[in-house]
Structure formats: C-alpha cells, structure tokens
C-alpha cells in the first residue's frame, strides 16, 4: 500500500495531539490553585476557572483519535477485526470530543466511559491482529500487557476517587500514559514504513 501526504500528516497529528493533551492537562493542573493533581481527575479541570482550556484539550484529543481512525481505515481492509478497529477509533474520538462539550455529569462521565471501553476493545482487536503478523512480532504480548495495566490502573482510580483516597489522579494519569507510550511507539513504526496488511482469517 502506498501512503500520501495526508496519511503522513494524520499520523503526525495523532502523535502531536496525544503528547499535547498530556502537556496541557499537566500544565493547566499545575497552575490551577484549587486543583490537586494527585487526587482529582483530569475532568475536574473543566470546572476550574478557565476550564475551557481543558474542554478544548479534550476536543482536540478526540479529533485526533477520530482522524486516526481514517488512517486505520486505509491501512486495514476486509474482515470484522479490521473494520471494527477504525470504527472504535471513531467512537473513542467522538466520546472525547463530547467530553469537551458536556462538562457535567452524568453525560460527561458516560461519554468518557464509552470512549474508554471502545479503546480497550480496540486494543484487544489489535492484539488479535498482531498474532499472525511476523512483522509485528512481540506486539500481541505488549498490547495485552498494556490492556491489563490500563484496567488495573482504571480500577484503582475509580476505587480511590469513589472513597476520596489520595492518588486517584495519579492512577488516572497512569492509564493515559500507558496508552500514550503504546500509541507513540505504534505510530512511529507506521511512520518508519511498517505496514498493516489485511488480516487473513483461517
């Protein structure tokens, strides 16, 4: 498969937007006087003065996830696994964009939950996809490990946030960083020329 400038631009956009999302929420949280990054979730930044900054941050991050689904649609063809991966990218993207529009619960938490579940399912589908691809050797194990870590960190975040324990915000950020590292490494492989071939079902 050949790739054009739009394809390459969307790959870079995905990396830049993912890194920017982390830079913005960390920087904004650092200067918000009534916000505790160690304890509070990122979403609480939308309720701070100048909370529109985090709302825009969610929206741009979601837009990049949706755009990356277009990249996956051009990289993958054919069967259920490869069709669902781009679709779930779109679901995650729209969920994040809506989180930037709807800042209050229950809608805010609901769309973020949908985005998170869609992301986890997408990771599982990637693990299945990588299993019989020699050019992606080791990525099934790495992807499954990432899923397990994100679930564990998310569980610890929900538990700590519900009972108002310290470090709830830390666990939420560990989920995001785990996804970030996987995504950046994966996208850099694509930029380096490694392709995603259609899945052959046996």
Share in β-strands: under 5%
Shape type: globular
Got a strand count? 0
H and E string: HHHHHH
Calculate the mean pLDDT score and round it: 90
Which spans have pLDDT < 50 for at least 5 consecutive residues?
Answer: 198-202
Termini, distance in Å?
23 Å
The number of helical segments is 6
- Which structural class should the secondary elements be placed in? mainly alpha
C-alpha Rg (nearest Å): 17 Å
Number of domains: 1
The major pleated sheet works out as: none
Kindly state the percentage of residues in helix: over 70%
Model description:
With 202 residues, this protein is mostly helical. The protein has one domain. Helices cover 72% and strands 0% of the residues. It contains 6 helices and no strands. It starts with a helix and ends in an 11-residue tail after the last helix. The relative contact order is 0.14. Mean pLDDT is 90; it is low at 198-202.
Keywords:
202 residues; mainly alpha; 0% strand
Indicate the topology:
Layout: H1 5-31, H2 52-75, H3 80-101, H4 107-130, H5 139-162, H6 168-191
Helix pairs in contact: 1-2, 1-6, 2-3, 3-4, 4-5, 5-6
Put the structure in a nutshell.
By secondary structure, the protein is mainly α. The protein has one domain. It has six helices and no strands.
